[in-house]
Specification:
By secondary structure, the protein is an alpha/beta fold. A hairpin with a 2-residue loop joins strand 13 and strand 14. The longest helix has 37 residues.
């Protein structure tokens, strides 16, 4: 039997790699296994939103990610008849095309194959590539997983206290557990063609992260060059002339050097359960989100940010196993809302293209210089989804609130200091922002210096807010906020900080589940 690890992570994509880095910061012994021999060479997910960048900031890698990403002006989607035609519609990716006042971070356009090496380097815990989980079974005090080396065929059993399955939409772990899904399932087949071509003279003056045309979507891959074309998968993939297809879709005679071709399925579902005893699902294993809007990878990163502090608390003894139930309670509603928004995003994109087709059929302008404009149906709100990104709010036993009603979450974001919500972006008395005060501990935000009881079993720090914050966050004064390690508010007191017994009771309730 392989030496026991505390958490076995299955899947080496952005979600699994983020979980590995988060757990390592808590001192948790982790083993990550990935069935492929290396990190993915394909661009795949393209958008790292503002909330994910906040999480990566806490891991100390946000600046490295931004340095390898596109400049902020690429945070835009452009609709064109062909790549070299002018825009007939355009929309900014809010929170990506530049800073927003609600956060010290903003999102970036970057390719997943550029992001993953940075995430891999953010931790030192063991990673085994080319190793596949083929079976998993729970025991009283842990889980036994059967791992197979895909090169040698050698089989190794590994015992872990918990398993975190981030092994994708076709999750082996989910299938072995018999967990069903809700949603339409496979909604399309897409081919990604990665290619080199000299297209700068068509795109340099009007940069974008996505150029959406009737012939497919064109995406610049890296600031130094490279492109990808996303198109519905044809019937005959073996005999396809991909260079010719890309050239014809560009609408001009351009030399195209095809580097890689990948066929994949667009899935749309949410798992019926996120937890099965000591095994937890995250990312695409828990919810497959269509790519419109760039939501899928980011909601998976937020999954493990929610989960990892809870796992660490249970493993270190300052939280009860029941706390892990709050992971599904809090994250499944987010997954369902995000799936619904992604479906709406797809409909809005198709609507823009349909309006354009109607224009052209009616004899509208197809000229290079003066295309008819198409008013986007969302009035510049495509990607303006800060409500789904920063406005996520939780109702569970890990949030102390007198109102059990579900939180309202739309595409708009209104900062609030109510329990369950992400703590708003504030400045502390020493000039730091609140985001930089949160970490592998609970944080008590107060308006006056305060000393907690000397001995508490929970990791806790106290930070002081400027006095002017007292009346800013609702009808009642703001006396103190208890913030969880994931940055969400666990409890609020209106008239000063709690006494030691009250704080002890609050932390007990939050970590019991």
């Amino acid at each position: 039997m392989h030496p026991e690890v505390e958490v076995l992570i299955v899947g080496g994509g952005p979600v699994g790699l983020t979980a590995r880095a988060l757990l390592e910061r808590w001192g948790v012994r982790v083993l990550l296994v990935e069935k492929h021999r290396e990190l993915s060479p394909f661009p795949r997910s393209r958008l790292v939103n503002v909330r994910s960048m906040e999480i990566f900031r806490q891991l100390g890698i946000a600046e490295r990610i931004r340095a390898a990403a596109f400049p902020a002006e690429y945070g835009r989607i452009r609709f064109r008849d062909t790549l070299h035609a002018p825009d007939f519609a355009s929309a900014a990716m809010i929170g990506v095309n530049g800073p927003v006042p609600e956060s010290p971070e903003f999102g970036v356009v970057t390719s997943q194959d550029r992001l993953e090496p940075t995430l891999l380097g953010a931790a030192a815990s063991q990673v085994r590539f080319g190793v596949e989980l083929v079976d998993v079974a729970e025991e009283d005090e842990g889980v036994v997983a059967r791992l197979v080396d895909r090169a040698s065929g050698a089989e190794t059993p590994v015992r872990a206290r918990y398993v975190l399955a981030a092994d994708g939409a076709n999750s082996t772990v989910r299938a072995r557990l018999g967990i069903g899904t809700t949603g339409p399932g496979a909604v399309g087949r897409v081919t990604t063609v990665v290619f080199d071509a000299d297209l700068d003279h068509w795109s340099a003056r009007q940069p974008a992260g996505v150029y959406l045309t009737a012939q497919g979507s064109f995406l610049p891959l890296y600031p130094e060059g490279g492109w990808a074309w996303f198109t519905p998968t044809p019937e005959d993939t073996e005999g396809a002339d991909w260079s010719g297809r890309v050239s014809r879709s560009l609408g001009a005679d351009v030399a195209v050097d095809v580097l890689r071709v990948q066929h994949w399925v667009v899935n749309a579902f949410v798992a019926d359960r996120f937890r099965h005893g000591r095994i937890l699902l995250a990312g695409d294993a828990a919810h497959a989100i269509p790519p419109a809007g760039g939501l899928g990878m980011n909601v998976g990163v937020a999954d493990v940010h929610n989960l990892c502090w809870k796992l660490a608390g249970v493993l270190r003894g300052w939280a009860w196993p029941g706390l892990l139930d709050s992971y599904e309670t809090e994250r499944r509603p987010v997954a369902h809302r995000t799936l619904g928004q992604a479906v709406e995003n797809s409909k809005m994109m198709f609507q823009v293209q349909e309006v354009r087709r109607e224009q052209l059929q009616a004899g509208g302008s197809h000229g290079e210089q003066t295309p008819d404009r198409v008013e986007p149906p969302w009035s510049e709100q495509y990607f303006a989804q800060l409500g789904l990104v920063l406005g996520v709010a939780y109702r569970s036993a890990a949030v102390l609130t007198g109102d059990g009603s579900p939180p309202e979450t739309g595409t708009a974001y209104v900062p609030t200091a109510e329990p369950g919500h992400r703590a708003p972006h504030l400045r502390l008395t020493d000039g730091r922002c609140t985001l930089d005060a949160f970490g592998e501990w609970f944080t008590l935000l107060t308006l006056a210096p305060w000393e907690p009881p000397a001995i508490l079993p929970w990791p806790l720090r106290v930070e002081t807010l400027p006095a002017e914050q007292a009346g800013q966050w609702g009808p009642d004064p703001l006396g103190a906020l208890l913030v969880r390690p994931d940055g969400h508010i666990a409890a609020r007191w209106s008239y000063g900080p709690p006494d030691g017994a009250t704080l002890h009771d609050a932390l007990t309730a939050v970590t019991t589940g």
